[in-house]
């Protein structure tokens, strides 16, 4: 029987232990309480001053008030910021661990209205988990708007983040 010295055992065992503790590549961490975040629209972080473009399918000349549906391939996500930066407005989860994204103003009392507003929102429980913008949404063909990233249920000290967007008509 061969005896392995403590240094050799440590050298052989440490890499194996690190493999067990390592998270899978690309794994998104869970959203938790007391964390700062920014909403991400089409790969651009929302803590920017410029509106982020969203392409809307609108055919022919666009008239004021005309609406359409977002084109495929556009996305939303929530990204954790640590430590928080001083630029732009940030969201804060407070005691919550779910962030909902709403196109336009979130309904009053978001916690109770979540089921009724499902067609206008997406829920996130993990950071950097990219979700497609539903093509079923009806959005303006032009102009500006807001995507609200709201920790739910809304209870102090949570803070929503308003991400400015620009709707662009595409044939």
Keywords:
171 residues; seven-stranded mixed β-sheet; five-stranded antiparallel β-sheet; 12 strands; 12% helix
Brief summary of the model shown:
The chain has helices at residues 6-21, 110-113; strands spanning 36-41, 44-45, 52-57, 67-70, 75-81, 91-92, 99-103, 121-124, 131-132, 139-140, 143-151, 161-170.
Count of alpha/pi helices: 2
Mean pLDDT: 80
Gyration radius from CA atoms, angstroms: 21 Å
Percent of residues in helices: 10-25%
Structural write-up:
The chain has helices spanning 6-21, 110-113, and strands at 36-41, 44-45, 52-57, 67-70, 75-81, 91-92, 99-103, 121-124, 131-132, 139-140, 143-151, 161-170. By secondary structure, it is mostly beta strands. The strands form 2 sheets. The chain has a 7-stranded mixed sheet with strand order 8-7-11-12-3-4-10, with no helix packed on it. A hairpin with a 2-residue loop joins strand 1 and strand 2. The longest helix has 16 residues, at 6-21. The termini are far apart.
Topology:
Layout: H1 6-21, E1 36-41, E2 44-45, E3 52-57, E4 67-70, E5 75-81, E6 91-92, E7 99-103, H2 110-113, E8 121-124, E9 131-132, E10 139-140, E11 143-151, E12 161-170
Parallel strand pairs: 3-12
Antiparallel strand pairs: 1-2, 1-5, 1-6, 3-4, 4-10, 5-9, 7-8, 7-11, 11-12
């Amino acid at each position: 029987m061969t005896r392995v010295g403590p240094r050799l055992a440590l050298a052989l065992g440490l890499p194996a232990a690190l493999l067990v503790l390592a998270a899978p590549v690309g794994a998104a961490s869970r959203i938790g309480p007391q964390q700062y975040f920014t909403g991400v629209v089409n790969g651009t972080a929302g803590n920017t001053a410029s509106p982020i473009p969203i392409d809307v399918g609108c055919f022919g000349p666009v008239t004021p008030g005309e609406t359409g549906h977002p084109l495929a391939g556009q996305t939303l996500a929530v990204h954790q910021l640590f430590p928080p930066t001083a630029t732009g407005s940030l969201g804060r989860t407070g005691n919550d661990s779910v962030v909902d994204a709403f196109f336009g103003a979130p309904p009053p009392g978001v916690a109770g209205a979540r089921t009724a507003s499902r067609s206008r929102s997406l829920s996130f429980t993990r950071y950097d988990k990219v979700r497609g913008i539903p093509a079923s949404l009806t959005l303006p063909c032009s102009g500006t708007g807001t995507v609200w990233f709201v920790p739910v249920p809304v209870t102090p000290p949570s803070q929503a983040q308003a991400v400015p967007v620009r709707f662009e008509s595409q044939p």
